[in-house]
């Protein structure tokens, strides 16, 4: 069988294969412009990406996200950097989950433009967790943070297609301004929210 329809079907299946594998495992990303609490970081456009960044930071952006399936998650961040002859590693930041830093910093890949970097892995229970960005240099910039239970998943390859990336997008959990529902880290949100925080 070598009809045009068969060729189109095969191409579509190949295109959707990374997304199907990600669904079987549990893979999702949070775009940083969707953070509920941005601190003194700012949302802007940078090299055709919508990013969250800062120049002189005194507070940290954070948001709450939901894990639907407990397990070991590999955490990636998409960040810009510069080639070796243009001061690479000068826009670094760290990613924290539930106030604990991942082992590696983002923004150190040494490539011109945006690239996904694996920052570490973390065992996460089903439920709500706190995601925080922390400045590690001047001018940190973050496009998105990706979580996957699939150790073979590489977003530089498997989420390079814009359509597939859009399917992996997940909105953060919206937290009311005056309380946190059964959330284990209410104090961490207090500075970002600028109001009272109650744990119930």
Please characterize this protein's 3D structure:
Mean pLDDT is 80; it is low at 5-23 and 194-200. With 200 residues, the chain is α+β, with helices and mostly antiparallel strands. It has a four-stranded antiparallel sheet. The radius of gyration is 18 Å and the shape is globular. The protein is 20% helix and 34% strand. The chain has helices at 4-25, 155-158, 162-168, 186-193, and strands at residues 27-31, 42-46, 49-53, 62-67, 71-81, 93-97, 100-101, 113-124, 127-135, 141-142, 144-148. The protein is built from four helices and eleven strands; from the N terminus they run H-E-E-E-E-E-E-E-E-E-E-E-H-H-H.
What's the short story on this structure?
This protein has helices at 4-25, 155-158, 162-168, 186-193, and strands at 27-31, 42-46, 49-53, 62-67, 71-81, 93-97, 100-101, 113-124, 127-135, 141-142, 144-148.
Query: Counting H and I runs of at least 4 residues, what is the number of helices?
Result: 4
Structural class: alpha+beta
| Succession of helices and strands | HEEEEEEEEEEEHHH
Q: Could you tell me the number of beta strands?
A: 11
| Rg of Cα set | 18 Å
* Rounded average pLDDT: 80
Distance between the termini: 62 Å
Outline the biggest β-sheet: 4 strands, antiparallel
The portion of residues forming beta strands comes to 25-35%
Helix content: 10-25%
Neighbour order of strands in the largest sheet: 1-11-5-8
Unreliable parts: 5-23, 194-200
The gross shape turns out to be: globular
